[in-house]
Amino acid sequence: MKKIALVTGAAGGLGRAFVAELIKEELLDEIWSIGRNREKLARLKELFGDKIIPVCKDLTDTKQLKSVSVLLEEEKADVRYLVNNAGIARMAPSEDFSPEEIERTIDLNCKAPVLLMNYCLPFLSKGSKILNISSASAFQPTPYINLYAATKAFERSYSRALNAELKARGITVTAVCPSWVDTDLLTKEIKGVKVKFHGIVSPGRVAAKALKDAKKGKDMSVCSLYVKCQHLNVKLMPQKLTMELWLNSIKKYL
Question: Which of 82, 37, 41, 33 is nearest to 58 (CA)?
Fold first, then answer.
């Protein structure tokens, strides 16, 4: 059986950083790199070599998502890692989101990772690891990124609960909760004002720490003192106050 890793949103940013870390894993025969952009996936293979298997899929399309399970069955795959990284984020008032954008965000950030985990479960075994990319924004209600933050809170909660379910099988599920990650997903400028991202971290740092924590069996991974302090603060402070502090920090961009 081929020992494989699956990484969604693999073509750039944090997904690419996970591919760069996983390529170091000698036990892996293949890294299935899932994304929508065929050209970017091809460049990923050129960069990292023949272990990379480009899988061009739109994960918001239920039929395309289901086809991944068919590929797993055909290959009789032994899934050692599943990294659910693909996601959508946008900072804006709720009224600015179209119904289609809301649906797509929920489909990609919540529905797709849950279905992909479900499809992969028969192909997981002792020592397999699932890493779901949540966010530090999952720790508290976060106005103006509330759609994104709520989907990430879902992902964090689902991951930690599934970890408890699968523990007896020796399978680890880790919710990865970084602060701002320096990728193209970030909005660099709003209304002509450059955005300052406090506690921003590199994709490589997040990926390396997440894999290290997954190997330790942790159900949550945070990669910086900034996020650890943030997590502690939201436990100690009333949520109303944390929202007021957040709103004060972003008011110049609204």
Answer: 37
What are residue 162's DSSP bridge partners? Answer: none
What torsion, rounded to 10 degrees, do the Cα atoms 41, 42, 47, 53 define?
Answer: 70
CATH number at residue 190: 3.40.50.720
Report the helix count and the strand count for the chain, using DSSP H and E. 9, 9
Contact 6, 83 (CB under 8 A): yes
**SS in 3 state form for 84-132?**
ECCCCCCCCCHHHCCHHHHHHHHHHHHHHHHHHHHHHHHHCCCCCEEEE
Residue 34 in tokens: 């899932």
Boundaries of domain holding 193: 3-253
Taking CB atoms within 8 Å and a gap of at least 24, the contacts of 147-152 are 147/90, 147/94, 147/97, 147/102, 147/105, 147/106, 148/87, 148/88, 148/89, 148/90, 148/105, 148/109, 151/87, 151/105, 151/106, 151/109, 151/110, 152/87, 152/109, 152/177
pTM over 0.90: yes
Point out the residues that are catalytic. Answer: 148
Q: What pLDDT digit, counting tens, does each position of 167-226 carry?
A: 999 999 999 999 888 887 666 666 666 777 777 899 999 999 999 999 999 999 999 888
CA distance 159 to 180: 20
Please tell me the total count of domains within the chain. Answer: 1
**In which region does residue 101 sit, left (phi positive, over 0), alpha (psi from -120 to 50) or beta (all else)?**
alpha
Structure tokens at 129: 């690891």
